């Protein structure tokens, strides 16, 4: 009958213990989880105890993966969920970790949307492009619209950015034939989220005075 033969502290992480069953490593779990799962040296390693320890180990692994991922850059909730699931973590455990991160204010889609809009707008992306990008990242519409409204409050003119971009691009293409220059400037604006009649008008103005 298999028994727990050791609960050894992990030298790299003091808050984690290694569970040894019949002298061989089985899993690592947070020290608090080991206590909650009633893991004790000499205890019979039953199927129920194994399942409990395995789940605690999975939860700890996903949490560490989540923290490591967020340390690299900010993520939306849905983007992070997809990333962790693609790594092979169980969706149920990922959902648990996501909720914990939200409770601890490590994940906040409203704040993420604001920061995303500010940083990308500074790189020349317009409202339409930003809206599409954030939708693709799974951010709720209410957060997207709030972030865009904060970046371009009522009365502000997001097309000022389009004019700056068009003017700069037109100067870069000053030696190109006019019709080609217009097509390229219009396409350039489109990639940054500026489309429609306003984009066409701005393109014509910029190309007329490169």
Number of domains: 3
CATH architecture grouping of the largest domain: Orthogonal Bundle
Specify the helix fraction band. 55-70%
Q: Mean of the pLDDT scores? A: 84
Q: Shape from CA axes?
A: rod-shaped
CA(first)-CA(last) distance: 83 Å
Query: What structural class is derived from the secondary structure elements?
Result: mainly alpha
Residues in β-strands, percent: 5-15%
Number of strands: 3
CATH topology of the largest domain: Arc Repressor Mutant, subunit A
Can you tell me the residue ranges where pLDDT is under 50 for at least 5 consecutive residues?
none
The H-and-E topology, N to C, reads as EEEHHHHHHHHHH
CATH classification class of the largest domain: Mainly Alpha
Strand arrangement within the widest β-sheet reads: 1-2-3
Rg result:
27 Å
What does this protein structure show overall?
This protein has 210 residues and is mainly α. The chain has three domains: 4-103, Orthogonal Bundle (Arc Repressor Mutant, subunit A); 109-151, Arc Repressor Mutant, subunit A, CATH 1.10.10; 159-208. Helix content is 62%, strand content 11%. The protein is built from ten helices and three strands. The chain has helices spanning 31-36, 47-72, 77-86, 91-103, 109-121, 127-136, 141-151, 159-172, 178-191, 196-208; strands spanning 4-10, 13-21, 24-30. It has a three-stranded antiparallel sheet with strand order 1-2-3. A hairpin with a 2-residue loop joins strand 1 and strand 2. Helix 8 crosses helix 9 (178-191) and helix 9 packs across helix 10. The longest helix is centred in the N-terminal third of the chain and has 26 residues, at 47-72. The chain is rod-shaped and about 85 Å long.
